[in-house]
Amino acid sequence: MLAYVARRLLVAVPTILLLVVASFFLMHTAPGGPFTSERPLPPAVLANIQAQYGLDQPLWKQLWDYLYNIVVHFDFGPSFVQKDRSVNDIIAHGFPISLTYGSLSFLAASVVGIALGIAAAIRHNTWIDYIAVSLGIAAQALPNFIMGPILILTFTLWLGILPGGGWNGGQWQYLIMPVIALSTSYMGNIARITRSSMLEIMNSNFIRTARAKGLPTRAIIWRHAMKPTLLPVVSYLGPVFVYVLTGSVFVDMYFSTGGLGASYVSSALTRDYAVLLGVTILYGALTVIVNLLTDLAYAWFDPKIRY
Amino acid sequence: MKPITKLAIAALLSGTALSGVQAATHPETGQELAADQTFTYRLLDDVSSFDPQIVEDVDGANVVRDLFEGLMNQDEDGNLVPGVATGYELSDDKMTYTFTLRDNAVWSNGDPVVAGDFVFGWRRAADPATASPYQWFVELMSIENASEVIAGDLAPEELGVSAPDDHTLVVKLTTPLPYFPQMTTHSTTFPAPQKVIEEFGAEWTKPENIVSNGAYVLTEYKPGERIVRERNETYWDNENTILDKTVGLIINDENVALTRYLAGELDRTDVPAGQYPRLKEEYPDEAISFPRLCNYYYTFNLSDSGPEAFKDPMVRKALSLAVDRKIITENVMAGGQPEAYSFTPEAVAGFTPPSSDMVNMTQAERDAKAKELLAEAGYGADNPLSFEMVYNTSEAHEKVAVVLSQMWKQKLGVEATLANMEWKVFLEERGNQNFDLARGAWCGDYNEASTFLDLITTPSGYNDGKFSNAEYDQLITDAKTAEDTTPLYTRAEEIIAEETPVIPIYHYAGVYMMDSDVGNWPVDNVEQNWYSKNLYKLAE
Amino acid sequence: MFGKSEKAAELAADITDFNAIRGRSLFRDAMDRFLRNKAAMASVVVLALIIAFVVFGPLFAQYSNEEIDWTRMGDIKGMGAPSLETGHYFGLDELGRDLFARTIQATQTSLLVGLIGAGMALIVGTAWGVIAGYYGGRLDSFMMRFVDIMLAIPLTLVLILILVIAGRSFVTLFVALGAVSWLTMSRIVRGQTLTLKTREFIEAARAGGVSETGIIFRHILPNLIGVVIVYASLLVPEMILAESFISFLGLGISEPMTSLGRLIAEGAGTMNYGTLWQLLFPLFFYVTIIITMFFIGDGLRDALDPKDR
């Protein structure tokens, strides 16, 4: 087990390194740079600025300096666009925010989704099942970005009970809409997966045996059916967790939460190389770690798997 | 701290205390003021910086203008009024300006604002090590040795600005520049607190470190969320400042911003294109529109890489004639934008657009003329004109582009393919003459026609269409030193109308939803340089 | 996220076992089972109707998808509502263009994006997986290590990068979507190939002197079809969802072309301005396509899954 974790983490290092190198060169092939602007800068000014940010160096040297600073000083460099802030600042500010509403959305989606799925499976082919299934499908089929304006119109303009955006240190009023908007589509998918997995398990031989022994349904579900039911759900949840964090651009844009999602997209559009790379590394590392955790969780749920 | 400043502060503090407690009335108009003097407005995005020498975006400059104060300020109409300087003298050769600084100006840490702070700030702006994107502004101000300092050939200390004593600032120019005093309202020329910058380095603009000399201090900055600036009790004119707090909320989506405005969370927001008429009807006191100092146009690529067809002025003219500007201003933008038949906006001070033949025709006549010209140029049903038009991704630009292409298609049978590009790609392609027809827009740096007309001179760095006309260039050069520029600018616009290197579409308007309890918004300042200290909130 | 659905992977093994035992007759059985699945069949009918709408709708459209109705564009809210009289069955968009024609064109784009995106994933993923699995050895470990690394990259980010760099066009969009969605497909296919490779009938074919490529094309690929189809059908809605997200970011295809995602993003922005039809019509088609694809995908999976539920 430990050896397995160590091996996975060891592979992670070259993976992330490769990711950095690839993103670095990809980024530099995109037309325009951080200092391309509507009003073209006079050559002397442009030269000064590029020298200041080290962009006058050959690419390999820029990459080397960048990596060197990260490894030796844990310094991801200054932002080229938000001139008062460093990449460390931006991540330190934005990541906790993304992490907060991301985790809450993840939690909400898992708990509600799994509950909905189990309810539907246990009451298979009853109205509970139908409602749960329709809810799940509707939630999943709506593009999640239209949730933003709908929620703000409803809760802020018409009902006037929630602030229309902002973060305010993560007070609950400010969290409700981002969490609802972000969790709905995953909730639907989780409910669907849970339902079909549970149905399959309940029809399997070992459950039939348990029933034959006369165990009460509740005990069967909790003691025997739960773990295997959640197996496919867990493997779905891993990528969802990463996606909830990276795919939260629209939450930041609609709800002014100040999270990292918007920073990533705008850094790609403004060619803020340092921020783009910094966030890519962060999300890359996160993906690697979450994938590892998912696999470990998988082992816990399925005793047949041994690492 | 000198005794005099201490006294001043005490006086100012008592002044605020008074205005804070009572249900105050406005000292001049006598209107009743609201108890909560907070102005909240929408910001599109994070600002580029709070550092006066570094900031480069308009929203950022608005914030910095509240935090710092330069030599001169603008009033509600855009006229110059004293700032830190009480006035200035111009030498006989018109090349040396001597500013006298007030003695009661203080930094928010209590230090007096001295001429040396300006010298430091200006040198800092020109210093290559600062890497300010506005270094060119120092060059534009024609300050002695500016170009050499920027190029790194001379030390920043050689810049033609000096402080003989704490309250005198002397600036030496290389050439007479009539609008030089106007330029001292620009954030690049604001003073900078040397001690603080040296102590904190890049961190000096953080709310906990920043020291400023304007009417407000930065108290909170939550990136992607909000920027808060609050009354600076040490400001010399604090007594006459009514507004206590200005909050900028960062909201990327303009429709969401409008929703939040309607929910009462904002005092000011931008009106999405096309929504103004409806809002004006529903909220007549709140929807406002006023002309701004910006133009919106399409530029032909006249360089070698441009299409052959555009080399013919008749083709260019035909395309311009067929654009029904009324439809674009009334049905697409619908925000009170003036239709554009000249390159320079009518709102520019002292500029009267020449009356060209196009202005006087009806649209039907223009369309007929356009068909005629295009046929004459050899394009018609058997030989249709086709080209690509590029614009950067944005809902409003897209609407205009779609409408233009449809006008040309339906009236002239011209096939204009639309290509939207992401902003940086667009700039790169346009800058490298990699286009047929491209969108362009410009907001004046100062309130004078040359800020626009300069753009399409042969040497201009912004002349992406590579229009080149010797007479035009000469006119603009002459205008720099001419006593009466009107005939020159009129002739220049006539050349633009004849040659049609660009198709002016409309001139910008500021279109806002503004809460009716916001007092004194400077609608007549076409540059929209607003100062929170001039605003106030009325009691509902 | 894109193309990381685990559903297919989970039942892949079952399908192969089944193949091996019962051979090709699986497909007739599966077909029967699929035809008996009411939800899936209803979805097929609805989807067919939508495709018919896309194909025949233009015959009824009174306007093209780019033509502006100049007389009505000044007052969309008042004069642009859906109406049989004006010929604008679905009303007008913000610029006075016929939403009926635009919805048809958008539906077409979204379906194409779904099908071609999933198709690209299918081709690349299958080729990659079969080659890695069949030839094995160092090539296999190299190819699969590459997939592992790619899977560790947040794919939304890659998608944005590709679109920013390559500019926008139909081709870029398909390439970008395809590029991020083939990874899981290749893993599943490789797993299947590894199992198939050791089966007796492959041994027999090899002993009978069939060439390597012959084995791959005549014996391996036909046996992979089941799992590949199931997985691809699950990818289609994912591709459509991904395209709508790209449109939301403003990186989608260029005007006058449009997609359902774009129309929805536009309609969502203006939904409080009294022109709700601009959101509802495209949203209806979008949601319907996604839901039918879900059911068809589920139906296919159930049909190909030997464990009868």
Automatic annotation (TrEMBL), chain A:
Transmembrane region(s): 104-122, 134-160, 172-191, 233-255, 275-301
Topology relative to the membrane: Multi-pass membrane protein
**Per its UniProt record, what Pfam families does this chain match?**
BPD_transp_1, BPD_transp_1_N
> Main localisation, per the record?
membrane
User: Where does this polypeptide localize?
Assistant: Cell membrane
**Annotated family:** Belongs to the binding-protein-dependent transport system permease family.
Q: What is this protein called?
A: Oligopeptide transport system permease protein
The source organism is: Pseudooceanicola antarcticus
> Source gene?
oppB
Automatic annotation (TrEMBL), chain B:
- What keywords would UniProt list here? Signal, Transport
Intracellular or extracellular location(s): Periplasm
Matching Gene3D superfamilies, A to Z?
A: Dipeptide-binding Protein, Domain 1, Dipeptide-binding Protein, Domain 3, Periplasmic binding protein-like II
CDD domains named in the record: PBP2_OppA
Domain (Solute-binding protein family) spans 80-463
InterPro entries the UniProt entry points to: Peptide/Ni-bd (IPR030678), SBP_5 (IPR039424), SBP_5_dom (IPR000914)
Signal peptide location: 1-23
**Which Pfam families does the UniProt record give?**
SBP_bac_5
Q: Does the keyword Transcription apply?
A: no
Q: Which GO terms describe its molecular function?
A: peptide transmembrane transporter activity
Q: Which GO terms describe its biological process?
A: peptide transport
GO cellular component terms given for this protein: ATP-binding cassette (ABC) transporter complex; outer membrane-bounded periplasmic space
Q: Which family does it belong to?
A: Belongs to the bacterial solute-binding protein 5 family.
**Name by which UniProt lists this protein:** Oligopeptide transport system substrate-binding protein
Could you tell me which species this protein originates from? Pseudooceanicola antarcticus
UniProtKB/TrEMBL annotation, chain C:
Has the keyword Cell inner membrane been applied to this entry? Answer: yes
List where in the cell it is found: Cell inner membrane; Cell membrane
Q: Which domain of life is it from?
A: Bacteria
GO terms under cellular component: plasma membrane
User: What keywords is this UniProt entry annotated with?
Assistant: Cell inner membrane, Cell membrane, Membrane, Peptide transport, Protein transport, Transmembrane, Transmembrane helix, Transport
Gene Ontology biological process terms, A to Z: peptide transport; protein transport; transmembrane transport
Q: Name one Pfam family in it.
A: BPD_transp_1
**Membrane association type:** Multi-pass membrane protein
Spell out where the chain crosses the membrane: 39-61, 111-134, 146-165, 224-253, 279-300
Family from the record: Belongs to the binding-protein-dependent transport system permease family. OppBC subfamily.
Under what name is this protein listed? Oligopeptide transport system permease protein OppC
- Originating organism: Pseudooceanicola antarcticus
